[in-house]
Design a protein that fits this description.
Length: 156
């Protein structure tokens, strides 16, 4: 009776691990850019390997093979997120930008502009008023002049 329960529990863990790997593979093909693909695969990889190795450890019982599986699990749980982080940093260093960040920024600007227009009683005055955003060069020049006068140079 207990062998049947252990077998059912181990197959449940093996099934969950396989499910997470399949979801990660689906995310690899469905996601729009490198960063979201890496995120989908790394999360599903960590969960999948955890469930798969736990299921294998339950199936083998307490033996030397279980100790080996635990060591493999520890290595995978440690190295997987580190490798994903290194790949993301390399992609950023190579100049790859996330696609969704631009879309979210544009969407938030549209929403805030819509709220400003909807919240004002005089739509004409609101739409003709200049925006308060500064250009990138204006922000850089103002941040560079902050330190002047206190013995700091503008070059950093």
């Amino acid at each position: 009776m207990s062998d049947q329960i252990l077998t059912i529990v181990s197959w449940l863990f093996l099934g969950l691990g396989s499910f997470f790997y399949l979801v990660g593979a689906f995310g690899l093909f469905r996601m729009p850019d490198v960063f979201t693909r890496m995120h989908a695969v790394s999360v599903s990889d960590t969960l999948g390997v955890g469930f798969l190795i736990t299921g294998m450890a339950i199936e083998t019982g307490w033996s030397l093979n279980t100790a080996r599986l635990i060591i493999i699990l520890a290595i995978m749980l440690y190295s997987g997120p580190i490798a994903t982080h290194a790949l993301a940093q390399a992609a950023l260093h190579a100049g790859v930008k996330p696609k969704l960040a631009d879309n979210r920024l544009k969407k938030s600007r549209r929403i805030s502009a819509t709220r400003e227009i909807a919240g004002s009683s005089n739509i004409q005055a609101k739409s003709s008023a200049p925006t308060k955003s500064r250009s990138r060069t204006a922000r850089k020049s103002s941040s560079a002049t902050r330190g002047k006068g206190r013995g700091q140079s503008s070059k950093r």
